[in-house]
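[job 0417] fold request received: Two-component system response regulator
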Amino acid sequence: MTSPNPNLSSAPTLLLVDDEAVFRERLARAFRERGFEVGTAGSYEEALALASRESPEVAVVDLRMPGRGGLELVRALHALDSSTRIIVLTGYGSIATAVEAVKLGAFNYLPKPADVDDLLLAFSRGPGEATHVTEDFQPPSLARAEWEHIQRVLSDCGGNISEAARRLGLHRRSLQRKLQKYPPAQ
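[job 0417] inference complete; emitting structure tokens
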């Protein structure tokens, strides 16, 4: 059994946020086996409610979730308690997004798939220090890249669909139709 990071307390609290329930629960079980007190959430709202009750020492946040995404959650968690060490998980390996996450308060980032040992290693590195990128990385499909770009612009516009449509050069209704669809698979 691997012991928790020596920089953390004897029973560190961890917030694990991912919309994929199976992945989230598998990671939560692995962290519990390593001595962490784990709270899990499947959305921005659940995560913020948990963190407001008891601020975690560390957090693992999925970048892309339905509704409010991981970047917004990083910002909110950092505002709630700037000492929380946040790792962002991304299935898309976007360096620009990872840099943005670190600017918003994330301690580090990791590409998916990541296991508990990868996460513990990322917590032990310096803030923003590059992590190992898996060699079998598959770039996202064009549809997925478009969806991510739309989400990023929408986030930059504070959720204002009209402004996002203007910046994207789309009609507002066309953008609304695109937003109603669930994100395309890689």
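[job 0417] notes: Residues 142-156 form the longest helix (15 residues). Strands lie at 13-17, 37-41, 58-62, 85-90, 108-111.
[job 0417] exit 0
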